[in-house]
Every structure is written in structure tokens, then in C-alpha cells.
Description:
alpha/beta; disordered C terminus; two-stranded antiparallel ribbon; Sulfatase-like hydrolase/transferase; Alkaline Phosphatase, subunit A; 556 residues; 10 strands; transmembrane; 2 domains; eight-stranded mixed beta sheet; 44% helix
Amino acid sequence: MSGLHLLSHPLRHPRWWALGFLGLCLGHALSVLLPIPWFSLLPIAGLWLGLAAKLGWGAPRHARYRRVWPWSLLPLALWWLYLYLSDGFGSVDLGAVFFHLQAGISEHGGAGRITAAVLYTLAAALSLVAFTWLIRTDKRWRLVEKVLMLALVAGNPLLFGLGQRGAAIVVEEDGAWLDRRYQEPLLQGRPASPPNLLLIYLESIERTYADRERFGDAYADLAHLGERGTVFEGVRQIDNTGWTMAGMIASQCGVPLMPAGLLHDRQFEPLEAVVPGIDCLGDLLSKEGYRLTYLGGASTSFAGKGLFYEGHGFDLVLGREELVPRMTDPDYLNSWGLYDDTLFDVAVEEIADLETEPGPWGLVVLTLGGHAPNGYPSRRCRERQGEFDGVDILYSVECTAWLTRDFLERLEARGLLENTLVMIASDHLTMRVSAWDQLILGERANTVMLLGPGVGATPVTREASTLDLYPTLLEAMGFDLPQHRAGLGVSLLAPTLNLVERHGAEEINRRLTQERALQQRLWEGLAPQPESAPETPQEQVTETPRDQPETEVEPL
């Protein structure tokens, strides 16, 4: 009994509870930030406790308890916020954070992230209590705590990103580098028989999954579709294009989504419109007589999707609220909205209706099945693939890939794809999922493929970004563009070098932190205007004089 008493006595001391919990927190943080498995937190916590025992942390020889408040409490809390975002999304995009605060997040389907937020908040609070106890108990920690506070502030990527963007406002930098490269989208030539357009966004299903050695047959059905058309390899993700609305705006408007008024007065005001200052795909096609429809399984009020499509030429914008009444089983929903099998069924009937009327049509479809962290595999897939374990993202990727192939085959069987160009694209690279460690082993790329009349079955391997999909799509439809350009994008069907090929993704990302003129262009009428506007409009040039050769068509 005495041995058990001696063994249990340390566990009753607050020192070991506090130090043990801090060790677990440190282990969790490293497992989130580094490519190490989650269970690494246990040996990391063990090493921390061993060091604490050796150095006597929390039990100095001349202990003197002082009721002080640590300087590091706020920096530690901000690190917990960063860990929460990084754990849920893989990488933290400040643009996404600000945009969603402005555009609205009330109709989200991420119930799991709410649970995670509660757990993170609880863990953060307990860690702050434990750290406060350590500071008050151990003088050595009090002596180094201010240095630790500075390190926590300087090392937090969230604060570094805010500081970087804020510095761009006051530092004399070229804040119009991207804006000078913006090309107003102009249709200089038109096809004799304009094709219909079917644009399918596959939520988070990037081309990286095509690697069979790492991901097996998860992407096989999409690879089969790609054999019939043009597959674009090397379409990277630059900053401000890495979430659903940003990905759709990049590929339909040729610009990164820079939030309205970042660090300005409109930072947290609800949006009245989404990128109203530029013409996007819907604006151009509606003027050409296209009847345009958007279909998505989630709510159109989330992240401004409805505002964007309604404000850019679409006649019909349908999301969860509008589509549920059409369902034979309105209870067959996931936390976001419609499963992909239901959405594709609706899309088939929508296309059949569009085909009954004269003139070209355009339909944009956004799936949900591949949404991080685990996906939402449909009932039809469960019947085909067997039981879903609730975690494996590859199961969900395979499901949506098969449903997409089946969807197109059904349309072809009914003769609904005649004179129709199909683009299949991931809206963005996936965020943190069960296959994350495998995904980040190498360079990643978005899914992009074209199918339809006149599209060759030839892969195109080029370094590019989703900004280039806008002019690529227009030229594939038969429209002529000045210098093969629209927005910041360059058609991947033309020999002109694009921004990524000329400057590299890192340089574009660096410029995005300094850009102000392009932001004002996107949100013209909404974003704060300069106090003194120039008397004459700024001349729009393709490049600065030293970069002028970029306007020439060059061989690849």
C-alpha cells in the first residue's frame, strides 16, 4: 500500500497535471505544423516531462509564488487560433478568413469544425491556466517569459501575414503591378455556332489524386474521361484562389479574390455584391445570348455564391434551399446540402429543360462529395463501393469521380451533349484530409480537363494557375481574345506565356501582399476610394516598359 501511495502522490500534485497538459499541447501543435503523425504528441509530451523533471520546472528550490499575469497569454491564444485553422484547412489563407467574415458563413455545413472549435477553445483555456500557474510558481520561467512572448508573436504565421499586408499599405511599393497586367475581357471574334457550356467544379478533387502509386484507383474514372479530351497538367494554386469562391472567381474572372477592404473600413461589413468591378464569364456569355444556370448542393447564401452569380449574368441560381423541394426524399441530405448523386440527377433534368429552348446555354455545377475533411460519399456509391468508414477521403474522391463519369455518360446517352463544351475542374486544392501526408509529398496541381467537339485528346503540360482557365475556356468555345488574354489569365491553348511561366508563383504571391490597385478594381463602388483621384485615368498597359516583351507571342 505504501508503494502505491508513493506512486500516486505525484499525480495529485498540480505541477504534473499542469506540465503534463502543456506537454500534450506542445506535442499536438508540432503534429499539426510538421509532417509527423498525430500520435507523436505522446513521445513529445514524454520528452517535455523528462526535461521538466530534470530541471525541476514548477518546483524550484526556493519557490516563491507571485500573483502575476503572463505577458504571453494573448500570443498563446492567437497560436491556438492558428493551430485550429491549420488543423482544419492545412494552410491558413488570411484572404479566405476575411472574405468569409464579409460574405457570410451562417449557412455552412461544417458541423465538425464547430465541435473542433469548442474543443480547441477548451484546450486553449486549460493551457493558459496551466501556463499561468507555471509562471507564478517558477521564477526562472518568469525571467524568460517576455522573450518567449516576443518569440510567439514573431513566429505566428497569422500575425506575420497581417503585418505583411499592413506594411504593404504604408510602405512605398508598387501597388499596381498586377493591375497593369489586367486585360479587360473582350470578345473580338465569335464562333458561327456558339457551343453550350457545362462547367463542373469538383469540390477539392485535385489532379494530385491521379498518382496511382499513392492513391490507387481513386481518380480512375476521371482519368478515363481525360483520355477523351485535353487534360491540363501543372495548373497550380496561387494565393487568394484556394477556397471555393476564390477558385470559381479565379477560373471565371481571371483574378485572385482579394477581399473587399482588407484592413480598411469595410473589413467586416456584409457584402452587397461580389467583385462588381470586373466582367466575368457570366457577364460575357449573357451578352452573347446564353441562358445561364448555377446548381450547387450547398446554400447559395454561404460565402456570397448567390451574390456572385446573380450579379454576373446568371438567370437562375439554385442551391440547397431551392433544390430540396424538388427532391423525392428531402431528408436525404448531408450537413452542407445535397449529395452529389442527387445534384447530378437535378443537373440532367435541368440540361434537358435547357435543350428544349432555342439558343446556347451554360450550366455551372458545384459538387460537395470531396469536401474536407472526410468527404460526403453518396448513397449510390455506398451501394457500389461498400461501407464507408467515415474518414477515408479516397473513398469520397472515388465516389465523386465515378458519379461525374456516370453523369456525362447519361447525358451522352440522351443526346444532351451535342455541340457542348465540358470543362471539369477542381475548385481548389484540397484542405487537410486523411491522405494529407501523401498529398504534400510532392508538387500539387488542380484538375482541369476539356471535353467536347473540336477538343483534341492531347495532354497539355504547362506551369499555370487557375487564372488561366478563364481565357482558356473562352477560346475553347471559339471566341477570339486580344493576345489570348482575359483578366490576368492567358489561354493555355495559345503559345503566349502566362504569369506563372514568366514570373513564378512565388513572385505573384509576393505581389499580392502589396497589390492595392487590383483590389480597388475588383470592388469598384464598394471598396474605399483614394482621397484624391487622379485627374486623368491611369493608362492600362500590358507590362511596364522593361517587361514589354511579354505582349509578344512567344514559342513555348
